[in-house]
Amino acid sequence: MSHRKPLVGGNWKMNTDRTTSADLTRGVVDALKVQTDAEVVVFPPFPYLLSVRAILRDRGSNIRLGAQDVYHKPDGAFTGEVSVSMLKDCGVQVVLAGHSERRHVIGETDEQVNAKVHAVLDAGLDCVLCVGETLEQREAGHTDPVNQRQVRAGLAEVTGDMIERVTIAYEPVWAIGTGKNANPSDAQDVHAKIRKLVAHLFNQDIAERMRIIYGGSLKPDNAAGIFNEPDVDGGLVGGASLKVEDFAGIVRAAAASRP
Ligand code: PGA
After folding, report:
1. Predicted pLDDT of residue 20
2. Would you call 99 a catalytic residue per the annotation?
3. Mind listing the pLDDT tens digit for each residue in 112-140?
4. So what's the pLDDT on residue 180?
């Protein structure tokens, strides 16, 4: 059994408003109390980071605050972008890089994702690097090469001391928001291969300690089956993270998946 503490992230995407982000935060905090068997992170939209943080702090919660994206430059004339120091100033501790919607809807490249990973790690924050193949790539038999390329490129020039703050999220694009989750053994297969690649790029010890989480249509009733696989160390949750009971159920499944 693995010694890695599971991580569950709630990626709210471009959802909620001032009222519902606050209600959701309070609901999640109350449902989970202080969790010790799983690390929990919420990723609200930028405008609500400060108010979500205030609620987490006021309630003494150990739920961590995450941001869904960041721009890699420190400051300057980049209209509409948000820097890592601004995120840090708002109390953000964890940042997503390379979510499939950023890659496939907004058009981010592997190089841009890598620049974001560096910006986040250089600032001392934790980073969740998201990778995953599209349906077309899967059907063409390219699942492994696509994930390997995205991991290699995303982690390019990341050093041994910084890698400790990276979590990889395997999120098959065809499973995101579709209601079709990967079956546990398929997820396990990809996770094991990613871990092997991390061992090759860094070393065995780093690979053993790195959390590799799954994302794509996680629900309370499918989470346990996926989290019980030995190389799946929790999950990144989209749609179900907007419902307190569903998100809490997924966190409980992750907490129960390790001895
Ligand atoms: P989903 O999204 O849970 O709605 O499929 C997952 C994600 O995009 O992180």
Report:
1. 98
2. yes
3. 999 999 999 999 999 999 999 999 999 99
4. 87
Q: Is 235 in the pocket of ligand 1 (CB under 6 A)?
A: no
pLDDT (mean) for 93-97: 98
Q: Within 13 A of 229's CA, how many CA atoms are on the CB side? A: 23
Ligand 1 and 9: CB distance under 6 A: no
| Ligand 1 contact via 236 beta carbon (within 6 Å) | yes
Residue 67 structure tokens: 């941001």
pTM equals 0.97
pLDDT of residue 70: 98
Q: Is the pLDDT of residue 3 over 90?
A: no
**Are 84 and 119 within 8 A, CB to CB?**
yes
Nearest CA to ligand 1 atom 1: 238
pLDDT tens digits, 19-57: 999 999 999 999 998 778 999 999 999 999 999 999 999
Name the nearest CA neighbour of 241 among 3, 37, 31: 31
Dist CA 40 CA 7 (whole Å)? 6
**CATH class of residue range 7-256:** alpha beta
Angle at 180 between CA 174 and CA 183, to 5 degrees: 100
Cβ of 237 closer than 6 Å to ligand 1, yes or no, is: yes
Which residue type does 2 have?
A: S
Q: Which of 39, 108, 133, 171 is catalytic?
A: 171
**What is the rounded distance in angstroms from the CA atom of residue 121 to the CA atom of residue 117?**
6
Beta bridge partners of 170: 131, 214
